Amino acid sequence: EAQVTQNPRYLITVTGKKLTVTCSQNMNHEYMSWYRQDPGLGLRQIYYSMNVEVTDKGDVPEGYKVSRKEKRNFPLILESPSPNQTSLYFCASSWDRVGTDTQYFGPGTRLTVL
Amino acid sequence: AQSVTQLDSHVSVSEGTPVLLRCNYSSSYSPSLFWYVQHPNKGLQLLLKYTSAATLVKGINGFEAEFKKSETSFHLTKPSAHMSDAAEYFCVVTSQGAGGFKTIFGAGTRLFVKA
């Protein structure tokens, strides 16, 4: 089944403890992206990647890192999480390189930073 | 700079009546426009997309949207609401900007459907 998977689905952590949220797609898509969803703000783009080893900042990249070493994986890294990073996170992928076609979303990761 | 404005945060309709969810956008370059739907505690699903072909776009579940360049609008409509349409709807624009290709979401419109 074609899908985008994220792990973990739920995570509660404490301020400053490094964490990684994994994202994997099995559709051989070029483009991958991370978003955070907060009430009343819609989804905001954190980082995106147009190809292996090519990443770029979205609108809210501060406090986050990403890497794209393999085409199928795009992990989101929070080196020192803070409470303002408590949010619902979505990973997405698209066949085209710039995200101008349909994006397929993962199920979401709900992160709470205490 | 790109931006997306969904003009209503909440819309309430009765089952069987028309639905109108309004979206205005701003983009320096030719945009791709989308509507996504998010049901409670679920991920996002594409309803429809405009990518510079026909200006009237038909999507899934009877939804359609019209791209009006002169009004910079991309409103979503459905002739007859169903209870299962109750969800949050996001208007999305992707286009090239000064900082590369960005995807911008509107704040969302929550649709309530009354029996």
Give an overview of the whole structure.
The complex is a heterodimer of chains A (114) and B (115). Chain A has 114 residues and is mostly beta strands. Chain A is built from no helices and eleven strands. Chain A is globular, with a radius of gyration of 13 Å. In chain A, strands 2, 4, 5, 6, 9, 10 and 11 form a seven-stranded mixed β-sheet that branches. The model of chain A has no long low-confidence stretch (mean pLDDT 94). In chain B, the strands form three sheets. In chain B, strands 2, 5, 6, 10, 11 and 12 form a six-stranded mixed β-sheet that branches. Chain B has a four-stranded antiparallel β-sheet with strand order 3-9-8-7, with no helix packed on it. Chain B has no helices and twelve strands. Chain B is globular. In chain B, a hairpin with a 5-residue loop joins β7 and β8. Chain B is mainly β and 115 residues long. Chains A and B meet through β5 of A and β5, β6, β10 and β11 of B.
Blueprint (SSEs and pairs):
The complex is a heterodimer of chains A (114) and B (115).
Chain A: E1 4-7, E2 10-13, E3 19-25, E4 31-38, E5 42-51, E6 54-57, E7 65-66, E8 76-78, E9 87-94, E10 104-105, E11 109-113
Parallel strand pairs in A: 2-11
Antiparallel strand pairs in A: 1-3, 3-8, 4-5, 4-9, 5-6, 7-8, 9-10, 9-11
Chain B: E1 3-6, E2 10-14, E3 19-21, E4 23-26, E5 32-38, E6 44-50, E7 56-58, E8 64-68, E9 73-78, E10 87-97, E11 100-105, E12 109-114
Parallel strand pairs in B: 2-12
Antiparallel strand pairs in B: 1-4, 3-9, 5-6, 5-10, 7-8, 8-9, 10-11, 10-12
